[in-house]
Amino acid sequence: MAAAIASSLIRQKRQAREREKSNACKCVNSPSKSKGSCDKNKLNVFSRVKLFGSKKRRRRRPEPQLKGIVTKLYSRQGYHLQLQADGTIDGTKEEDSSYTLFNLIPVGLRVVAIQGVQTKLYLAMNSEGYLYTS
């Protein structure tokens, strides 16, 4: 159903474009040199071009290079992982602590960087499985 509606809209748009092309004036130098509808069309087209060309583009705000998903890391034992301001890592039962929010940033295939939202410190795991911050 949605595909039929979409194809119908595309067909209507294409037909409108074709009508505009067929209604376009093909200019031929007339011996009387009077301003005809073709000259009016040119004026209309150029005024539209100037109008559209004069629009100022909005500048996008510079986005941070590393974007990710802000989430909480929760353990099966019922603790939220928390990264304190001094760099210590522990668990807490508090759900509304701002130190439990982490930014998961995709770095590569199956590799993410974990950054504390409040502290801006990164969380990592060494080869023995111990967590540390940087």
Order of helices and strands: HHEEEEEEE
Cα shape:
elongated
Task: Bin the helical content.
Answer: 25-40%
Q: Looking at CATH, which topology of the domain at 69-133 would you report?
A: Trefoil (Acidic Fibroblast Growth Factor, subunit A)
**What is the CATH class name of the domain at 69-133?**
Mainly Beta
Gross CATH architecture of the domain at 69-133: Trefoil
Percentage of residues in DSSP E strands: 15-25%
* Average pLDDT level: 75
What's this entry about, in short?
This protein has 134 residues and is of the alpha+beta class. The protein has helices spanning 2-23, 37-53; strands at residues 69-72, 80-83, 89-92, 101-108, 111-116, 122-125, 131-133. The strands form two sheets. A five-stranded antiparallel beta sheet has the order 1-4-5-6-7, with no helix packed on it. Strands 2-3 form a two-stranded antiparallel ribbon.
Indicate the topology.
Elements (H helix, E strand, L loop, with lengths): L1 H22 L13 H17 L15 E4 L7 E4 L5 E4 L8 E8 L2 E6 L5 E4 L5 E3 L1
Antiparallel strand pairs: 1-4, 2-3, 4-5, 5-6, 6-7
Describe this structure in words.
The protein is an alpha+beta fold and 134 residues long. It has two helices and seven strands. It has a domain at 69-133: Trefoil (Acidic Fibroblast Growth Factor, subunit A) (Trefoil), CATH 2.80.10.50. It has helices spanning 2-23, 37-53, and strands at 69-72, 80-83, 89-92, 101-108, 111-116, 122-125, 131-133. The strands form two sheets. Strands 1-4-5-6-7 form a five-stranded antiparallel β-sheet, with no helix packed on it. A hairpin with a 5-residue loop joins strand 5 (111-116) and strand 6 (122-125). The mean pLDDT is 75.
